[in-house]
Structures are given as structure tokens and as C-alpha cells.
């Protein structure tokens, strides 16, 4: 399609690592279907050199948001956390009347049909191209799901709600030229933290025991945690394993890309590894190996507790995920 009649879409991603990658997949599929896409989000911006096929920008500030998005024919937005923190009823009403607000699950008042506004404000050829998208706001989950992953759900939304026909699951990447995919065939990244440690994290001693067993098998376990947790893990008693620190998602992506596999809690690093094509083992707190937010761009498996027990502060699960189960899951993905 000629760029002269390509509708210009701004896609503003939610702030988390997993969501940021989902919206990179969305941006690529919008691009493939004839739209000129600019992705806004700090996760994608740190990976911009891997994705030269569309423009990627960091978030504007709240004060700059309207002016930064003003020149686009359509804004599709999963409001980042700094916006959600301000979204009272009046602000939500104003946002949904100018931007297509989306998320996996949204409040009912996010949805608004932008068809009439765009019909009267856009050139006819642009409006015609955008028309199938204009009532696609609100929740991406438009039916009950069972075993489908968030990747599956998003692709179905793009097809059924937005009417996109040319869809792909794996986003074409352009890694820096000095990198070699899975160059370090024995390097296993262990990702023992998450955004909700009390809820999602397998115990540190279990991860260290896993590292010991991997080392005995001839593997090279490396502990990779968020910068805020690095000092804690580097100085943890019993941690004699290399614990590199990455201040930028692009640097982390390069390290993951050359590794053999990732073993992680339910966290963003597992999604990033899967997005890059690596096998991933996810340790999950519930007895549901098909939970929706599992990594699902590359071969992956989920290790669940053998049982859970009721507790005062939620289900007790951590003692019932066994190191040997995690090892077997990793070996099955080799």
C-alpha cells in the first residue's frame, strides 16, 4: 500500500514487560496489514534496535501526551500505569472519546465507538481503512477462554475484533550483528524474582538448589534479577553463581538471546526469552499449566505445584514445586 494513503496509528502500550511485548506483536501485525504504526512505550523503546520495521518512541509525559498523539489518525492505547493512576471518571470519559482504549480486561466504561467521530474528521479513504478498528475498544477477551495463552487471545482479537487478515505470531527481529542465537549452549538463565514476590516467587533456597543440580549436570546457571533486587541476590548466602546486572532491556535481551534456556517465576523475563525464541520453563503457583499469561512464542512448559493447601494469606504452594520436576521440564525442552 502506498504510504500516501496509509493510516497513521499510534499504539501506546501498557508499562509491564509482558504487556510491552504483546503490544510489539500487535504493532507488527498492524504494520503487516497496511498501517503506518508508531509504538509508544519504554519497554519497546529499549528494544528499538531489534525492530527497525516500525517507529518506536518512549512514553510522552502526561502533559505532552495530547500533543505527541495529535498527528495520528487513530490512537490505540492500553493506558500505562502512570495514566491509570490518574484515570478518574471524567478523565476516562475524555480519553475514550478520543483514543481507542484497550486491555486484556477493561472496565465497561473504557469502550466507545469512535466511528462517527472519525467519519466526520478524517479523509474518506483513511476512514474507510480504519473503520473495522473503530469499535474495537475495551476488553480484548471477548469470550470465555480455557487453555489459550495471552498470545492466542491477542491474535484472535486482532483477527475478529479488528478484522486483520495477515497475522503472524513471531515478530521478525533484527538482532545486533555480533550476537549468535543460543551461542552459549550450556548457559541457563535462572530468573528467581518477579513483580509480586510474596505471591509468585518460588523460594530462593529452591532456586539455589536448582542451580547446584544444573551445575552437576554440566550446565552453567546464571542468576538474572531486576536491578532493584541485584544487591540482595548477589550477597545472598549460598549464592556462588554469577549474577550479572542489566540496566537496560536491550542489554538483557542480548544476554538472553545468546543463552540456551530460561527458568523463571511467572515474570517478564520468561516472556522476553520466549519473544526472542528461547525455550522457557515457568514455575507457576497454581495447578494450571495452561494459565493464560504463560510465555507462548517459543517452546515452553509450565511447572505447577503437585498440590496446594488453603492458607491464611492465600494458597500454600511453594513447598510443593520440586526441583527435580523443574529439571525434568527443562530437559524435555532441550
Automatic annotation (TrEMBL):
**Is Amino-acid biosynthesis tagged as a keyword?**
no
Going by the entry's taxonomy, the superkingdom of the source organism is recorded as Bacteria
The record's section on InterPro entries has: Glyco_trans_9, LPS_LOS_Heptosyltrfase
Claim: Transferase is one of the keywords in the record:
yes
| One GO CC term on file | cytosol
Please provide the record's keywords in A-Z order.
Glycosyltransferase, Transferase
Q: Which GO terms describe its biological process?
A: lipopolysaccharide core region biosynthetic process
- State the species of origin: Azonexus fungiphilus
Transmembrane intervals: none
Q: Name one GO molecular function term.
A: ADP-heptose-lipopolysaccharide heptosyltransferase activity
Protein name in the entry: ADP-heptose:LPS heptosyltransferase
Amino acid at each position: 500500500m502506498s504510504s500516501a494513503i496509509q493510516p497513521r496509528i499510534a499504539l501506546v502500550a501498557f508499562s509491564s514487560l509482558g504487556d510491552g511485548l504483546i503490544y510489539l506483536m500487535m504493532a507488527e501485525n498492524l504494520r503487516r496489514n497496511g498501517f503506518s504504526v508508531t509504538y509508544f512505550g519504554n519497554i519497546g523503546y529499549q528494544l528499538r534496535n531489534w525492530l527497525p520495521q516500525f517507529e518506536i518512541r518512549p512514553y510522552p509525559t502526561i502533559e505532552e501526551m495530547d500533543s505527541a498523539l495529535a498527528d495520528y489518525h487513530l490512537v490505540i492505547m492500553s493506558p500505562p500505569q502512570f495514566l491509570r493512576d490518574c484515570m478518574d471518571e471524567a478523565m476516562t470519559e475524555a480519553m475514550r472519546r478520543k483514543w481507542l482504549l484497550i486491555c486484556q480486561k477493561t472496565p465497561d466504561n473504557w469502550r466507545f465507538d469512535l466511528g462517527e467521530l472519525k467519519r466526520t474528521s478524517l479523509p474518506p479513504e483513511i476512514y474507510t481503512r480504519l473503520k473495522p478498528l473503530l469499535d474495537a475498544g475495551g476488553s480484548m477477551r471477548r469470550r470465555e477462554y480455557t487453555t489459550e495463552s495471552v498470545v492466542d487471545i491477542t491474535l484472535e482479537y486482532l483477527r475478529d475484533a479488528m478484522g486483520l487478515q495477515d497475522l503472524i505470531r513471531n515478530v521478525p527481529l533484527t538482532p545486533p550483528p555480533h550476537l549468535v542465537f543460543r551461542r552459549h549452549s550450556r548457559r541457563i538463565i535462572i530468573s528467581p524474582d518477579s513483580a509480586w514476590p510474596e505471591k509468585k516467587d518460588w523460594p530462593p533456597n529452591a532456586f539455589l538448589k536448582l542451580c547446584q543440580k544444573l551445575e552437576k549436570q554440566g550446565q552453567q546457571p546464571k542468576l538474572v534479577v531486576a536491578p532493584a533486587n541485584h544487591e540482595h541476590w548477589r550477597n545472598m548466602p549460598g549464592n556462588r553463581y554469577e549474577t550479572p546486572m542489566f540496566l537496560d532491556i536491550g542489554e538483557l535481551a542480548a544476554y538472553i538471546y545468546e543463552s540456551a534456556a530460561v527458568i523463571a517465576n511467572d515474570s517478564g523475563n520468561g516472556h522476553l526469552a520466549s519473544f526472542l525464541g528461547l525455550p522457557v520453563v515457568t514455575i507457576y503457583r497454581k495447578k494450571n499449566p495452561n494459565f493464560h499469561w504463560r510465555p507462548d512464542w517459543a517452546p515452553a512448559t509450565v511447572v505447577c505445584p503437585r498440590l496446594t493447601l488453603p492458607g491464611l494469606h492465600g494458597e500454600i504452594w511453594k513447598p510443593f514445586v520440586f526441583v527435580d520436576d523443574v529439571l525434568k521440564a527443562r530437559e524435555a525442552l532441550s
